[in-house]
Amino acid sequence: MRNGVVVDIGGSGTRVGAVIDGRVVGVHAAGVATAEDLAAAIRAVDPSPNGVGVSVSGHVDADRGVIETSRAAAWAEGPLRDPLVTLLDAPVSVIGDGDAHALALTRLPDVEYGGIAISLGASLAFGALNHHGALIHPCGHTGWDLGHWRLVGDGANTEAWWALGGHGLYDLEREHGDGAAEIYAYRLGSFLVDTVQLFRPRTVLLTGGIIAGLGEALHGPVAEQLQSLPISVATPRVVYSPSRDTALFGAAVAAGLALPEMR
């Protein structure tokens, strides 16, 4: 395997890490506002990387390495892969963060494909793998966007990116105090029932800052909601990731810097 550098550009900022022998190490925050800044942050980790994997929150055309829109990093909108290739003189992969989280499933042992990954932090990211462990893409050029899925229940009637993102959780905490986590968990479980019926995964990976923060408070309500699945839909295994760096693991796989676990 080649050694290199991985980057996650998300709602909480930009994080950079090295990939050595397939492992992501030395993850840290970096102040980035231009492609030149990003190239400098990458070179600070490895002056001559053999490969670079970049995960970006937003609508990403991975085939062309173009960021169509990104709330988290408006500066990155437009071509990103080609400028980085020129600045770094190295191969570069640019993918959406939903796809990066889905590819992180391939690094987990004893996980059954197909699978879906949902990252919950400042917003919501979604990716899916088929039963061979390959990414499932929608019909268009960019990755999945389930953020505009409308949730109805517990007094909420709003889009998933808000209801399940940091804004929605903050509103619940302000209104319900210590009871916010349970309300949020049932809200998440209701969303999962819909997505599981649509995608029929064997594994669901839940990751991101909110998952790491709420931890076990989510487990019971989510499991209870999944019991309402129709008898024709198998209940998937739910994996809760305690890591805030899951997208970096997937970016490493996309860039060929890490290999999927053997099945």
- Helix proportion of residues, in percent? 25-40%
Largest sheet: 5 strands, mixed
Sheet-strand content, in percent, reads 25-35%
Largest beta sheet: strand ordering: 3-2-1-4-8
**Gap from first CA to last CA:** 19 Å
**What is the N-to-C succession of helices and strands?**
EEEHEEEEHEHEEEEHHHEHHEH
**Class from secondary-structure proportions:** alpha/beta
Q: Mean pLDDT, nearest integer? A: 93
The backbone outline, from C-alpha atoms, is globular
Q: Which segments are poorly predicted (pLDDT under 50) over 5 or more consecutive residues?
A: none
Radius of gyration from the CA trace?
18 Å
User: Tally the helices: what do you get?
Assistant: 9
Number of distinct beta strands? 14
Give an overview in words.
With 263 residues, the chain is an alpha/beta fold. Helix content is 32%, strand content 27%. The protein has 9 helices and 14 strands. The strands form 4 sheets. Strands 3-2-1-4-8 form a 5-stranded mixed β-sheet, sandwiched between helices. It has a 4-stranded mixed β-sheet with strand order 10-9-13-14. A hairpin with a 2-residue loop joins strand 2 and strand 3. Helix 1 crosses helix 2 and helix 6 packs parallel to helix 8 (219-226). The longest helix has 20 residues, at 180-199. The chain is globular and about 50 Å long. The mean pLDDT is 93.
